[in-house]
Amino acid sequence: MKEYVIATNNKHKVEEIQHVLGDKVNIITLRDLGCKDEIPEDQDTLEGNARQKARYIWDKFQKNCFADDTGLEVDALGGRPGVYSARYAGERCSFDDNIDLLLEEMGGKTNRNARFRTVICLIEEGKEFFFEGKCEGTITTERYGKKGFGYDPVFMPKGYGESFAEMSLDEKNKISHRGLATQKLIKHLLK
Question: What pTM does this model have?
Answer without folding.
Answer: 0.89
